Amino acid sequence: MATINRCKAALRIFGDELVPEELSRLFDHFYTKGWIKGYKYSTSSGAVVVKKTGAWILEAEPSETGDFDGQISQLLSHVNVSLDVWASFSRKFKMDIFCGWFIRDSNEGIVVSPQTLLILGERNIALSIDIYTPLDDE
Fold first, then answer.
1. Average pLDDT in the 80-109 region?
2. What is the pLDDT of residues 47-90, one digit of tens each?
3. Nearest Cα to 35, choosing from 55, 65, 12?
4. Pairing relationship of beta strands 48-50 and 126-132 according to DSSP bridges
5. Cα 79 from Cα 125, distance rounded (Å)
6. DSSP result, 86-101
7. Contact present, 18 and 55 (Cβ < 8 Å)
8. Which of 13, 113, 120 is nearest to 67 (CA)?
């Protein structure tokens, strides 16, 4: 089995009461993307979008080698708080690691280490995966 070509991961925390700046102060690290519930912005077509919930999102550097465990280590090194804090987050917020796994061939895969799975489980962080394959004309 060949290893996936590329992966991208982000720690996402969502909640109606979430204020991104408060989480950034707690983590002592700024988010990549963040907003409060009700935040409004205009798209390039002029449509107004209103965010339905607050968000704090931290994106890892994309890995061109499929090093998912490395991305998780990178993300969690920036949000080093106690397991008690993570437990309180899990009662107030929805949390996940959202990742895109990009493959070139029909039989590529990835192994997520037991250590990474344990770290996510201890923090009650779900793992959400999108798998991307090349289009037929590529």
1. 92
2. 999 999 999 999 998 888 778 899 999 999 999 999 999 999 99
3. 55
4. unpaired
5. 13
6. HHHHHHH-EEEEEEEE
7. yes
8. 113
Q: Which residue has the tokens 């339905």?
A: 52
- % of the chain at pLDDT higher than 70: 96
pTM: 0.89
SS3 74: helix
User: Residue 57 pairs with which residues in a beta bridge?
Assistant: 12, 33
**Exposed, middle or buried by CB within 10 Å (0-12, 13-18, 19+), for 46?**
exposed
Per the CB < 8 A criterion, the answer to whether 5 and 108 are in contact is yes
The total number of residues written for the chain in this structure: 138
Q: If you average pLDDT over every residue of the chain, what do you get?
A: 92
DSSP tag of 104 = S
End-to-end CA gap in the chain: 22
CA 40 to mean position of chain CA atoms: 22
Which residues, including other chains, have CB under 8 Å from residue 32's CB and lie 6 or more apart?
10, 57, 58, 59
Within its chain, how far is the Cα of 133 from the centroid?
Answer: 20
